[in-house]
Every structure is written in structure tokens, then in C-alpha cells.
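Bug #77: duplicate submission created two jobs. Keeping one. Sequence:
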Amino acid sequence: MRIQPIVEGHGEVEAVPVLLRRLRDGVGAFGLDVGKPIRKRRWELVQEDSLRKTVRLALLQPDCCAILILFDSDDDCPKELAAVVEGWAREEARETPCEVVMAHREYEAWFLATIESLRGKNGILLDAISHPEPETPRGAKEALEERMHPGSSYSEAADQAPLTAAFDMAITFARCRSFRRMTNAFGALVSGAGFQLANWPPQDWLRGRV
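Kept job's structure:
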């Protein structure tokens, strides 16, 4: 059984399976695997015909038992746009569980929320400080570069997956509404795929909310 991700960026093709496996291990759904993400351009994910076609492609992937669509909100309202896209996707997926998550404003905001946990990794400064409002800045990648060694540049292809493997998910859960949405969506997919959930999200994550 596999969750089939649909993503927007090149970096997410490598990073999202890492994220989903970390969440899977946290919930204890060890019989659940993650399919290789299907990458589409953003306009293809927010246009009905192309989105429906992509969902049909996801359903054809081996052992697909659930679908996650993840992309950045950029300047759009994630609550409003995600609801529209999710309506199309769920109608096309029918009985297969399907969730849409929009990282607000960019996936990298989740790193900005807990940069202390990433110090010393992939060029992150040893004294880097988390952004006080990580989902506020337009240009999270640039904000991340400001917390890297001078002359370093952030590369989605090189850096997104390793940072995904290391960031503190509990702190990000506390500080980022869109990551809480990601966590809850994952729980819904796992439950919809037939796995029993206990204490999800983890109780220590809930206690740490700020």
C-alpha cells in the first residue's frame, strides 16, 4: 500500500517522500510506503481539467491507496484555494482518500520555523535564529539563504531533502498552521487507507503549541 504524492517542485520530488516516511514512522504505520511523486507545474494543479487528469494518473500508480497533493500557496489564500482544488481531486479520486495541502507561503517556511534544529547542516549558520513569523515572508528561500554561510545559496535539489530529514517537526507543528494542516491531512490519509491511529498528532506536539 502506498501514498501517492503529487508535487510542484523538483526539490519536493526527493523531499516529500522523506517527510511522509518521517510522519509514517511517527504514527507507526510501517506497512505504508510512499510512491515516487508525480511532479506537475503549479498551473496544472490549480486548473480543473489538468488536476483531474493528474489525479487519474496517480490512481494508476502501483498499490495507490491514498493521494496527497502538496504545493506552495505563494500569494494565494491557502484555505480558499485548497478547498477548491480538493473538491476537484476528491471527486476524481472517488473512494480513494485524497488530501490537498498548501505550504504557506513556501515549503521552506517549515525550515524557518525551527532553524536551530538545522544548524550546521547544508550551510546553515551555527548561530542561525528561526524566523519569528515563518509563514509571513514572501521569499522563504531567500530568508533561508540569509541564515546560511556567506556565499552559500539554497538549492531545492541539493538541500530540501536533507533539511526535511532533520527539521524539528514538533516545533514546526507549533509554529506553522500549514504544517499542522499537513500533519492532520497525513493522519486522514493513513486512517482512510485502513490503518489504526493512536495519539495522532503526538501528544508532545500538542503540548508544545505556541
